Amino acid sequence: MISKRSSVVVVGSGLMGTGIAHAFASNGFPCLLVDTNEAALDKAVATIGGILDGGVKLGKMSAEDAAAAKARLTTGSAVSAAPKDAALLIETVSENLAVKQAVLKEAEAVLNEDAIIATNTSALSVTEIASVLDKPNRAIGMHFFNPVHKMKLVELVLGLATDEETVAITRSWCDSIKKTSILVNESPGLTTSRMSAMLGNEAMWMLQEGTASAEDIDTALRMGFNHPMGPLELGDLTGWDTRLAVLKYLHSTLGEKFRPCPLIIKMVAAGRYGRKTGHGVYEYDAEGKRVPGSGMKGSLL
After folding, report:
1. What is the pLDDT of residues 28-49, one digit of tens each?
2. Minimal CA–CA distance to 151: which of 234, 35, 81?
3. Could you tell me the strand order of the sheet in which 139-143 lies?
4. What mean pLDDT do residues 72-93 have?
5. I want to staple 132 with a disulfide (CB 3.0 to 4.6 A). Which of 72, 101, 249, 268 is the partner?
6. Is 279 considered catalytic here?
7. Is-above-0.90 flag for pTM?
């Protein structure tokens, strides 16, 4: 049983870090959100406040509970700011092995030896990331899904050294924030990232070949398979730069079936990453809302 007095540290205030911090703060846990970028931290706090305020308007939580959740969220510029009694640290920094290893190594020097150290990586090896730790048995992958406040799944990824106690405690953490966890043996792309990368890549091949427009490809998946979002919409949300990095990794480890579609490479080179840049497969306004009719047309490629 996880105590509500247990504090959590989230390193990285991007899209995923913001969502993960919200999940813990809104479920009663003191949460420190760490990032070297002060502007990114300010944006994350504002985003979390907006989600909480939206919950109040929808009647999903009281104004008092929203205020309490905001009060439980604090920010810092370095892992060294983490309280020594923090029971869980989750890194959500860029998909770069050396950067992630540096965060975990610093975390191990700050936290108690019984604290769980988790990585939200969607593609890299948990074993490799944790190899810099003196006690890699305390490390585990916690792969959340975007948007975190709506998506209920967490993939718990077992590194070579991850022990049963770490798994049990981490599953309890997932239960405490109302998430469903599944266990995944370490493998490139895990389960969901591997399937999603394949689906998104194939959708881009179809778009490049002129099989159908972006809107129609996404509609096919939403209406034909009951997906909440189409693969091109999801790519714009995730960011095609991130998608390309994952595909390159899967291509190098799992072979030709994951070779990135040239259209993805072209879009990333042009800075068309998706929502975060205002333009991907679709265009977005200043508020991040999709511009109607802006999807790429296969026949115009």
Report:
1. 999 999 999 999 999 999 999 9
2. 234
3. 73-76, 31-34, 8-11, 88-91, 116-119, 139-143, 153-158, 180-185
4. 95
5. 101
6. no
7. no
